Prior knowledge:
Helix 1 (102-117) packs parallel to helix 8, helix 5 packs across helix 8 (336-352) and helix 5 crosses helix 10 (385-393). Strands 7, 8, 9, 10, 11, 12, 14, 15 and 16 form a nine-stranded mixed beta sheet that branches. Strands 1, 2, 3, 4, 5 and 6 form a six-stranded mixed beta sheet that branches. A two-stranded antiparallel sheet has the order 13-17. The radius of gyration is 21 Å and the shape is globular. The protein has 13 helices and 17 strands. It has a domain at 105-403: 2-Layer Sandwich (Creatine Kinase, Chain A, domain 2). By secondary structure, the protein is of the alpha+beta class. The structure holds glutamic acid and magnesium ion. Residues 126, 128, 174, 181 line the site of magnesium ion.
Amino acid sequence: MSDSDLVLLAWSDYVGITRVRGLVSEIYPKRMTTGIGWAVAGQVLTPFEELGPNPWGSMMEVRQVPVADTFRTIDIWNDAPPLAMVLCDARTLEGQLWECGTRTFYQNALEDFRAETGLEFIAAFEHEFQLLGVEGPDAPPFSIEHVRKVPQFVNDLARALKQADVDVESIEPEFGVNQFEVTTGPAVGLAAADNPIIVREVIREVARRLGYRATFTPKPTPDSVGNGAHVHLSFLDQQGNNATYDSSQPGDASVIAQHFIAGVVKYLPSLCAYMASSPVSYMRLGPHHWACGFASFGIQNREAGIRICPSPDPDPAKQARSFNLEVRAPDATASPYIVLGSLIRAGLQGIRDELPLPPAVDGDPADLTQEQRNEMGIVALPTSLAEALDVLDADPIARSWMPELMYQCFTGVKRTEIALAAAYTDEQLCERYRNVY
Ligand code: GLU
Ligand code: MG
């Protein structure tokens, strides 16, 4: 692996974009504690040219300080220099974690989860994306043709992701035209949100090197198949056992997992603004596309808001180890730190309140009658970002998960984004987000 002359100091902001500043490699080691300055007003950049409302103006600055164990060099090319990047914590000039930073938000949620449950949180994202710029006739979904149209891409991607040390498991064709999916193994704590940021940037880089563009936008065109960023999660106890699993319980979900599921279902309408945070997200979110349209719980069911993923392994020990929960509403316009941080907050509230496991729904909740949904306590998710923000605003618990200033700035960016998006047709808006994400 050759050294890079430039190290990109990176962070994920309120609109889920990885922003960077670059340090030349001789300077980088000298900046491990002080990092690089960043005018915090930059934290409220929208995916358009404008900034959202904020009190920070031209003066307030944070330091973006490298988190050493997130440093990665991807160097699989002879004709291009390596990509060297490191994720950062936003710190105040006094060295404290900045309370409005996205990574801080997640760290605080993790710490509370650990303190209140004694468990470690582990998670993995699934990455769906379209490869733009692929020539030739469309291949059938999931076919060998689909993959072998871009053999260099999938091969380079496997190599680059292994080099990125993110425990890549699969690279596969998906349902949509030139749509692919990458999955990785679960990671503990902070790495669970750091990894997906690294993975997305590696995918983008590999695509870029070959003249393609990878887009993770939730809806590349109004009629195309959507891109989800499904989250799989579970908990580990002190002995390293899967604390979400208990074969004596309904659905094999431990009591604490049942409370967590109930919390996620209860707060899912409020979570939407945190996890599906762009106007385009609501072209994807909804029933009949395996993306989810209702706050519901299911076993195996890909239309449920949160589902139990039972293990196919006949070995009981392996069954216990791989048992996990999946949440399908998130997409890549939301920062992984905000997605996982808010999910933990919702689940933790369910644990505190000892909420009972909701009834499991089989099939698409949209196919039930309204009366049946009422009986099962299943409510529809918001159908626009504006509605999602109104739901969140009206939920004193879910909005309290962010410090008030962060909440004001996060929702302010989102409302600015809605206002800017209003000038676009659906096609234009999809194009815009396709180019940004
Ligand atoms: N592409 C779907 C989504 O938008 C998910 C399809 C799948 O189950 O993998 O979430
Ligand atoms: Mg998929």
